[in-house]
Amino acid sequence: MKYIEGRPSQRLARYVECYWQLEGSASDSSSAEPIPPDGCPEFIFNCADPFRRHLPDNKTEIQPRILFVGQMTRADLIEPTGCVSLFAIKLKPNGAYPFLQLPLSEFTDEIPGLDSVLGHGVSELEERINLAASFEERIRITESYLLRMMNEAGLNDSHSGQFKAAVAAERIVRVRGQISIDQLSSDLGITSRHLERHFHMTIGIGPKLLARIARFQHVFKLLNCNPNISWSAIAYECGYYDQAHLIKDFKAFAGQNPSRFIEREYDIANSLTNRIAMSDFSNTAF
Question: Domains along the chain?
């Protein structure tokens, strides 16, 4: 699999983490793979063969060609049915709400068609992305679309609750989840209960869960930097109580223990988890 990514323009950096593209032949990946949560919703355009999603009740469904991936709280099991060619807008934890203006908790662990949440106008964007000659052209087309949405909708995230949730999410990610939510709420001059409510509205999950996901994602960063690091060292560095605590979270978010996930040759999952997860969100200026 070939994975590449690009940065958003300054005007969109408040909402967009990055743009990414993943391409490969049908022989590269032909079985179901677990994609762990990373705290970031996404708009995904499938420019090749459809994917099959494996549901918790042992049923499967063919995914739409254009997707909105809400906040995930567990690994999503997906299976390519042929050639893979994906282009995606990876949003920051608070990045979807300004565009959707809908409670993000409605989409937690859900992957609806993107046209059902952004409207039929997204079909033109899909067509232009499919016809684009390069990854860079796809980014230019997408940025033009998103900026037009901002201008037409008069996007404004200065509402106190929304703003404080965005600031809190930024701090949670910056410290890799190792933060007291009560202290964070106090620093922002808001009760923990109200922060929780704003998080569910504008981000889709609570601050404690985002902190757990941010801590879990740091595991992959450490492995990328030092493949020979011990699991006990990872547990200590990431703020887990012990190795058993790390394994518990890994099973919750990846669906299996750490050694099994790392040892399996997952083409798609490894491509997406080996990227520097949520690395630039902490640089956002609020």
Answer: 2-156 (2.60.120)
